[in-house]
Design goal:
- The chain has a single domain, classed as Glutaredoxin (3-Layer(aba) Sandwich).
- It has nine helices and six strands; from the N terminus they run E-H-E-E-H-H-E-H-H-H-H-H-E-E-H.
- By secondary structure, the protein is of the alpha+beta class.
Length: 214
């Protein structure tokens, strides 16, 4: 038996709303003093599994995928930057920024879970992509991030080329799709209630308070 709140966070590391949602959740947990009461596990969701190896220009990608005009896409990115700043996270949307494939990252996050470093690596990749202008589909970049959190680089990178590891991540994605997850971030609390979208801090506080009472 455990008295911890189990949270499953389904997300993608190139999803700005995912890091906004996480940062709001993190703030709620911190303000409630629940750092030792919440067990968080990240799960894979690929926003763009079929994106080409060279990636796609970000504003063009937003326009194509969501049907927005170029001006609307620019305003959307500016709004995200403001929301990130409120949470101490920097979004550096720059000319030439590309949306990229994240399958390799999800395999590495699955590996990092074995060593209790999943959140640490995940946040590093979010920062690399959104704050540091790094291509997180580039294995040299991923090598740097693995080193930065103290993981075995050779062992971790070998997982990327391992068919079983790749199939395991694909299986996890399929499971969440079959469970009704169609957008991210999606958070599942204690294997029961599901919440989609980056909610306000107070909403997370309310949910956590209710779970503590159960």
């Amino acid at each position: 038996m455990t008295d911890k709140i189990k949270m499953d966070l389904i997300s993608d590391v190139v999803c700005p709303w995912c890091i906004i949602g996480y940062k709001r959740l993190e703030r709620a947990i911190s303000e409630m003093g629940l750092q030792d009461k919440v067990e968080l596990e990240w799960h894979p969701f690929e926003l763009n599994p079929d994106i080409p190896a060279e990636g796609e220009n970000l504003p063009a990608h937003i326009t194509r995928k969501y049907g927005t005009t170029p001006d609307e896409s620019i305003r959307t990115l500016a709004n995200m930057a403001e929301l990130g700043a409120e949470l101490g996270f920097e979004f550096d949307f720059f000319d030439g920024m590309k949306m990229v494939n994240t399958r390799d990252v999800h395999i590495l996050l699955d590996y990092a879970k074995e060593f209790g470093k999943q959140t640490e690596l995940g946040i590093r990749v979010f920062e690399a992509f959104f704050s540091e202008r790094k291509d997180v589909s580039d294995r040299q970049i991923l090598t740097q991030e693995l080193q930065s959190v103290g993981l075995n680089v050779d062992e971790a990178l070998s997982r990327i080329n391992d068919d079983d590891a790749r199939k395991r991540v694909q299986g996890q994605e399929a499971y969440w799709h079959s469970s009704g997850v169609s957008s991210v971030p999606t958070m599942v609390f204690n294997h029961s209630s599901m919440l989609t979208g980056a909610q306000p801090v107070d909403v997370y506080k309310q949910i956590l308070a209710e779970l503590l009472e159960q």
